[in-house]
Amino acid sequence: MRSTRTAAAVMTLLFAASALSACGSDSASSASGDGTKVYALLPQGTDQPYGTEYLKAMNAEAEKEGLDLTITNSQYDADKQASDCQVAVAAKPDLIILWPAVADTVRPCLERAKAAGIPVTVTNSDVKEEDKSLTAGYSGPDTYGQGAASAEIMCELADGKDINILQVEGLTGNTTAINRKAGFEETIDENCPNVKIIASQPGDWNKDDSQTVTSEMLTAAGAKNIQGIYAADDTMVAGAIDALKSQGLDVKKMLITSIGNTKLGNPLVVNGELDGTVFQSSAWDGQNAVTLAAKVLDGEEVDEDLFMPSVKVTEANASDAEVTPNW
Amino acid sequence: MSTPHGINFGEAPARTRVDQLRRTLGRRTEGRAVALLAVVLVVALVMEPLVFSAYPVTLSRVALVGLVALGLTVVILMGELDLSVASTVVLAGVMMAQTDNVALGVLLALGTGVAVGLVNAFFVVKVGINSFIATLGMLFVLKGLAIVISRSEPIPLENITFAIQFGLPIVGPLTPRIVIFVLAFVLLHLFLTRMRAGREFYAVGGNRQAARDAGIPVDRRLVTGFVMCSVIAAGAGAIDTLERTAADPTAGSTVLLSSFAAAIIGGVALTGGRGSILGTLIGAFSLGTLEVGLTLTGVQVDIQQIYIGGVLLLAVMTDPASLRAARSSLRTSLHGVRARSTDRGLT
C-alpha cells in the first residue's frame, strides 16, 4: 500500500516536472529571433475555426519578422484575459498585441502596459474610442467598409431598378454589427436610392434566429413585395435563404448579399443562391497583426488603422485561389 | 501514571516527538498538494524564474480562483457540491453594475450571494434534491438571469477611476484582491478549526446520521455552508467587476473547473468530512503557479488544460481511499488467476 502510494506520488511529481520542462523547451524553440519578445493576448485560438487559421498566419509572419511570440488564449473570459495581461506585463516584452475579449474591460490592461512602457497594438476588433490614445495602432477588418462593399454589390445587382429588400443585422449592441449596418445603409442611400430597405431585424449572428426573423419580416411585408435580402454575415444569410425557400420563393431570382466568404458562404456563392459576399480573411488578420507590431517596434509612427481590404466575392471570382475561404 | 479519575490503565505507550509528528502528519490531508507545489516551484525556479520575480502576478492569479475555491471547500466538506459558484460570480457582478454607487453596488452583490445561498440550501435541505442537480439547475438559472439583466452586453462601471485604482497595489505588491483573499483564508481557517459550528461541518460531511444523533443542527449547518459559499463567490464577483471596470455577463467561464480543481488537489474529499482550508490554499497555489508558469512560456491553453486535467486525475488517483480500492481489486483479480492456475494443475 505504502509503495503504491509512493509510486503514485512520484508519478505526480514526474508529470508536473514534465509539464513545466515541456514549456521550457517550447519557448527555447520559438526564441529563434533576435530576442524581440512579443506577447499576443487573444480570446480564441485552435478552439475556433477562425482562430486556427489566424494563428497559423500569425506564427508564420512572426518567424519571418524574427519575433519571439508568446500567445495566450482567454476563451473570451475577460477575467482570464486581464490576468493574462498582468502576466504579459510582468514578462516585460517589447510589445503586446491585444485582441480584446470584451472591449469594455481592457482599460486596466492598457493602463498597466502604459505604466510599464510597453506599446500595445490591437488586432481583429478595436478598443473603444476613448481608449484609442492608449494603443499604438489597429489592424483588422474594416467593419464599416465591409457593409459598404456588400451594399455596392447590391446596387450593381439592382441595376437601377426599384426594389425592396430586407436586412438581417448582427447582435444588438455589438460594435461589428453597428458598423456593418451603418456601412450598408449609408452606401445604399448614397449609391442607389432605388433600393429600399423596408424591414430590418437582428439575427444575432445565428442561423436559426436569422431564419426566424426573416420569416417574420416576409410575412409582415408580404413575400411578393420583396426582391432581395442583405444579412450581416454568411451564417445568417444561410438562415435567411432557408426561410425564403420554405416560403416557396425562387432564391436564385432574388438579390442576396452578405459578408464573410466563409466555408459556409462560399459554396452558396458558387451554386448561385448567394449573389455576393465580402471576404474576411482570418489569415490576413493574423499576418497583419504581426506586420503592424513589427512596424511599431521599428519605431514607425502608425496613425491610421491598417484595414483588411474588403474584397467582393461574386459568382465570377468565387472559385479563384485568392478568395479561397480559410475558416 | 494515572488518569485524573485515579484509575490506572497501565503505562501509556511511550511517545517520542517523531511519533507525535508522524501521527500529526498522518492525519493531514494536504500531502499531495504540498508535493505538487514543491515540484511546481522547483521546476519553475529552473525553467521560468520569472514566476518568482513577478510574484505579485502569480499571487493575483492564485487569488482570482482561490477565493471561490475557499468558499467551495466549506460546501464540499459537508459532502455537498455547489456548481452554481461561477454563475453567482457573474450575476453578482451584473447586480453590482446596476448602481453608480460603488458601496451600494458591493452590498447589492453580497445580497445576491446571500439570496443564492438560501435558494440553494432551500432546494437541498427542504426539498431534498441532490445538491449536484439543484446547483446545476441554479448554474443555468443564474447565468440566464445575468444575461437577461445585462441585456447580454458588458456594463461599464460609472466610477472607472476608482475601479482602476482598486486593481493597483495598496501595500507593497498587495492589491486589495490579495488582501481580501488572505483575510478570507484566515477567517475560514479559524472558523473551521477553532469554532464549534465550524468543526461540526466535518461531522455533517463525515457521517450525517451520526451528526444528527449527536444533536448537531445539521440543516442549519447546511444552510450556513451554502450561504457562506455563495457570499464568497459573490464577493469574488464584485472584485472581478471592479478590477475589469465593467460587469461582463460572459466572464468567469473558466472559474468553476479551476476552483473545484484547487480544492481537490488540496486533498478535500468530494465525499465530505475530510480536507482543510489550508489544503485548498496550497492547491490554489500549485494550480496558479502552474498556470502562470505555462502562460509565461506560451503554452497554448488547450495543452495547459491537458496538464491541469492530468494533475487533477493524479490527485484523485493518489487519494488513499481510491488506492486502497485499486489495490484490493488488483489482489482479487490476481487471486482469481492463481486459483484458476492451481485448478488446471489438478485436472
List the helices and strands and how they pair.
The complex is a heterodimer of chains A (327) and B (347).
Chain A (H helix, E strand, L loop, with lengths): L1 H29 L5 E7 L6 H17 L1 E7 L4 H13 L4 E4 L8 H9 L4 E4 L13 E5 L1 H16 L4 E7 L5 H17 L3 E8 L4 H15 L6 E4 L2 H13 L8 E3 L7 H6 L5 E4 L2 H16 L8 E3 L2 E4 L13
Parallel strand pairs in A: 1-2, 1-3, 3-4, 4-5, 5-11, 6-7, 6-8, 8-9
Antiparallel strand pairs in A: 10-12
Chain B lengths: L16 H11 L3 H17 L2 H4 L1 H23 L7 H12 L5 H26 L3 H20 L4 E2 L3 H7 L9 H19 L1 H11 L1 H6 L4 H27 L1 E2 L7 H11 L11 H20 L4 H17 L2 H27 L1
Antiparallel strand pairs in B: 1-2
Helix pairs in contact in B: 2-14, 4-9, 4-12, 4-13, 4-14, 5-6, 5-7, 5-12, 6-7, 6-12, 8-12, 9-10, 10-12, 13-14
Keywords (chain A): Signal
Organism (chain A): Nocardioides ganghwensis
Protein name (chain A): LacI family transcriptional regulator
Keywords:
A: 327 residues; Rossmann fold; 4-stranded parallel β-sheet; 10 helices; 18% strand; B: 347 residues; mainly alpha; ABC transporter involved in vitamin B12 uptake, BtuC; 2 strands; globular
